[in-house]
Amino acid sequence: MISSFRDLDVWKGAVDLAVEVYRLTRAFPVEERFGLTSQMRRSANSVASNIAEGHARNSTREFVQFVSVALGSLAEVETQWTIASRVGLLEPTDQTIESLSRLRAQLLNLRGALLRRVSGVGESLSIYELSADQVVPVATELMDGDPGGTAMAVPVPRAPCPVPRP
């Protein structure tokens, strides 16, 4: 049972990301303190913070908005990570790429489930019923500049979502 944002796997993953960003940016040059270091830390903090704040709001619609903001903040982290890598401050690893992709998939999964709830589709399906670990790579053409690759992961639901009859 989910009683707090602290119970959400996606929030835990976002906190892990923020901790990793803090760890890695400690090694950045002092002249980046108000540049990439600050930007990366703020963006990473924003992902977890928006999930928490959205969960604490009074409506599902508000939660959807905050999850969308968290997705935007995650895109900022990914962009800043790319810049830091290109200027030689970070070495991108497969683990980092996987972690960012998994977190993005979890956020998209949560947002999709919340949107289904708001629209009345699948009302019997708990928004927390789908596990973010249930992701599969799919071909994309526009994501991450990886035409036909597997840059994006999408959740695979355990059971089909009921469709309301007209």
Shape: elongated
Q: Please outline the major beta sheet.
A: 2 strands, antiparallel
The share of residues in extended strands comes to: under 5%
Strand order of the largest sheet: 1-2
Q: Number of folding domains?
A: 1
What keyword list fits this structure?
single chain, mainly alpha, 166 residues, two-stranded antiparallel sheet, de novo design (two linked rop proteins), disordered C terminus, 2 strands, 55% helix
Which helices and strands appear, and what pairs or packs with what?
Blueprint (H helix, E strand, L loop, with lengths): L8 H17 L10 H21 L3 H27 L7 H26 L15 E4 L13 E4 L11
Antiparallel strand pairs: 1-2
Quick description:
The chain has helices at residues 9-25, 36-56, 60-86, 94-119, and strands at 135-138, 152-155. With 166 residues, it is mostly helical.
Structural write-up:
This protein has a two-stranded antiparallel sheet. It has one domain: Up-down Bundle (de novo design (two linked rop proteins)). It starts with 8 loop residues before the first helix and ends in an 11-residue tail after the last strand. It has 4 helices and 2 strands; from the N terminus they run H-H-H-H-E-E.
